[in-house]
Amino acid sequence: MNTASLHITAALIALTALSASSLAIPLYSNRSADPSTPALATGFNSLSGIAAPSGKIWSESASNNTNTVGLGLVGIAAHHTGEVSGSFRLADDFTVPSGAGWYVNTITVYAYQTGYIGGQSPFSAVNLRIWNGIPGQVGSSVVFGDTTTNRLLESSATNILRIGNSVVAPFPMTPDATRTIWASKLSINALLPAGTYWLDWQYDCVDPSKPALTPPVTIAGSVVTANANARQFAPSTLVATGAWTVISDAGKPEASADQLIDLPFLIAGSNGCPADYNADTVTDFFDYLDFVSAFAASDPAADFNADTVVDFFDYLDFVAAFAAGC
Ligand SMILES: [Ca+2]
Ligand SMILES: [Ca+2]
Ligand SMILES: [Ca+2]
Ligand SMILES: [Ca+2]
């Protein structure tokens, strides 16, 4: 091999390292302790004692422990309406912790369409933006995405059925299986440095005359979600200004306190610094030791270039990333 081809080989390895990404792992689930599970499911039995169909679990609008106060919102409009006055969008916030940031591979959002029973998703597209502040406010700007690109990778039925609160007056809702919640996974592939962000998103429905309705974050036994702040953009035919407003649940009974809500979403990706193999925010020799020991054990976690095979290319890519630092 002559000097020129050696240089080319080195350049190819460097290019491979640049495109390498660690396996996407669950990074965050809004208001859920488990980053791979949305804050939606409440139990196999409704508060009124009705069992969910086999293999399903309810997501029931919560009430307090004595079932004297409940939440009233079942779902919030999140769809493109085709109206010239605007369309619905939803927004909520999340924080990337200090360190190398997150390389976000996917974000998963949730919605149902009442009465829909098909095997294919009722949703055909989802667009999404990420902001560095509250959407639409002075000083906030979009750091990723737009309102037109369809980022939908897959939309699949969960085993979660949305229902209204089944016990609190007025009008407790009889549980039924008409609101299958669909998980829609969106392609992002962007590096987000540490900081607080807002995402806002919108569905297109296969049947454009039907809605996409997103259930709020639901925590059994609690009508209060601390510091909740989710927002909705509504067409100007529905709100005076056609603008973003904080979403508020009027509560049941309506005389009970109004409650702000959050919205369920998942973020998956990797630590923003792939060479920080043990994800402790410092890139040092312990990362090298940890990678080498995983590599020696053919641990799937050593599949550094995420091609499902642990081989010498993973070693080369890791060493190159480690040498490049962050
Ligand atoms: Ca929030
Ligand atoms: Ca109220
Ligand atoms: Ca480290
Ligand atoms: Ca590999």
Reconstruct the topology from this structure.
Blueprint: H1 3-19, E1 25-29, E2 57-60, E3 76-77, E4 89-96, E5 102-111, E6 123-131, E7 142-145, E8 152-163, E9 180-192, E10 195-205, E11 213-214, E12 231-233, E13 244-246, E14 248-249, E15 259-260, E16 265-271, H2 285-296, H3 312-324
Parallel strand pairs: 2-8
Antiparallel strand pairs: 1-16, 3-11, 4-10, 4-12, 5-9, 5-16, 6-7, 6-10, 8-9, 12-13, 14-15
One calcium ion is lined by residues 303, 305, 307, 309-311, 313-314.
Can you characterise this structure?
It is a single chain. By secondary structure, this protein is an alpha+beta fold. The protein folds into two domains: 25-269, no CATH class; 274-324. It is 13% helix and 30% strand. It has helices at 3-19, 285-296, 312-324, and strands at residues 25-29, 57-60, 76-77, 89-96, 102-111, 123-131, 142-145, 152-163, 180-192, 195-205, 213-214, 231-233, 244-246, 248-249, 259-260, 265-271. It has a six-stranded mixed β-sheet, with no helix packed on it. Strands 7-6-10-4-12-13 form a six-stranded antiparallel β-sheet, with no helix packed on it. Helix 1 crosses helix 3 and helix 2 runs antiparallel to helix 3. The longest helix is centred in the N-terminal third of the chain and has 17 residues, at 3-19. The radius of gyration is 23 Å and the shape is globular. One calcium ion binds next to strand 4.
